[in-house]
């Protein structure tokens, strides 16, 4: 067994665990989003799960190829199937990028401007209809419409990369980079504004204790999810500039952190969100320790 095989197995195991965890919270989040309609927060979480699953499909294909030391399913690096698996990942990635903005803007409307009616059930679905349409268009541009360079999985470098053309500028990489920078800056500014408002606003100081607890809990969940996202794309951009030649093993950090990023959503919701915990216990018939009644985080149908 080679080092590459062991690294592939580790990464494959992480991706398999990520898919399992996302499937575990899929039903609770779906119920809270579309059956109970508890809050638009869960609609956002649902689409975040879907974006994570899309990314993990491509990660599993990459890691299986690393283990086998050949291109599983795709045949070779530049095949149509390779580009298609890249398309699946990019659609998920673009969706996740814009979800960071949606989460941050949601907190601004709810906490700073107290506009709960903006992120209603129907409005949130309309927002995601346009976001998904935009994401698919951007992904098609990245993979098929631009003259260079399609995004693919590459077992030779243990990571993702672009099908580069000699002397041709990588418009695909530029679009991905611009997308990531815009979403990171926008969400960061929104979160900064929310934290500043919570600290200094006299109006918010008069908010009920339960409402404050709910707002801060949601805010921290979103911030932690965004941090994993930012670390993943920054790593993808800087590794080619700092990794010495011949040390391709370092590039495996990108799919590993992409997997951790895809897992963060499910872990945070299972460990922090009491509504998801309560739903999971109901599904698997697990009694609450101590027998006490599960308290809600104050989620209601009017909260964005």
Automatic annotation (TrEMBL):
GO terms for cellular component: membrane. Its main location: membrane. GO terms for molecular function: G protein-coupled receptor activity. Residues 12-270 form the 7TM GPCR serpentine receptor class x (Srx) domain. Pfam families: 7TM_GPCR_Srx (PF10328). The chain crosses the membrane at residues 6-29, 83-105, 125-146, 174-198, 218-238, 250-272. Keywords: Membrane, Transmembrane, Transmembrane helix. PANTHER family: 7TM GPCR SERPENTINE RECEPTOR CLASS X (SRX) DOMAIN-CONTAINING PROTEIN-RELATED, SERPENTINE RECEPTOR, CLASS X. This is 7TM GPCR serpentine receptor class x (Srx) domain-containing protein. It comes from Caenorhabditis brenneri.
């Amino acid at each position: 067994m080679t080092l590459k095989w062991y690294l592939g197995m580790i990464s494959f195991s992480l991706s398999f665990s990520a898919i399992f965890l996302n499937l575990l919270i899929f039903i609770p989040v779906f119920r809270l989003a579309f059956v109970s309609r508890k809050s638009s927060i869960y609609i956002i979480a649902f689409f975040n799960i879907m974006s994570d699953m899309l990314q993990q499909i491509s990660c599993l294909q990459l890691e299986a190829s690393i283990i086998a030391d050949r291109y599983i399913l795709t045949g070779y690096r530049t095949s149509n199937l390779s580009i298609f698996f890249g398309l699946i990942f990019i659609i998920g990635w673009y969706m996740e990028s814009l979800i960071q903005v949606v989460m941050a803007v949601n907190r601004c409307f709810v906490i700073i401007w107290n506009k709960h009616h903006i992120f209603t059930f129907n409005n949130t679905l309309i927002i995601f209809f346009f976001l998904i349409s935009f994401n698919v268009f951007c992904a098609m541009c990245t993979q098929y419409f631009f003259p260079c360079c399609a995004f693919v999985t590459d077992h030779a470098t243990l990571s993702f990369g672009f099908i580069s053309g000699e002397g041709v500028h990588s418009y695909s990489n530029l679009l991905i980079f611009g997308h990531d920078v815009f979403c990171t800056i926008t969400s960061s500014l929104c979160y900064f504004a929310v934290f500043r408002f919570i600290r200094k606003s006299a109006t918010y100081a008069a908010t009920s204790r339960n409402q404050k607890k709910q707002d801060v809990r949601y805010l921290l969940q979103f911030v932690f999810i965004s941090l994993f996202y930012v670390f993943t794309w920054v790593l993808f951009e800087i590794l080619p500039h700092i990794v010495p030649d011949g040390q391709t093993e370092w590039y495996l950090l990108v799919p590993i952190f992409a997997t951790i990023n895809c897992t963060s959503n499910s872990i945070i919701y299972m460990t922090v969100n009491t509504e998801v915990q309560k739903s999971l216990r109901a599904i698997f018939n697990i009694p609450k320790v101590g027998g006490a009644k599960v308290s809600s985080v104050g989620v209601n149908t009017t909260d964005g």
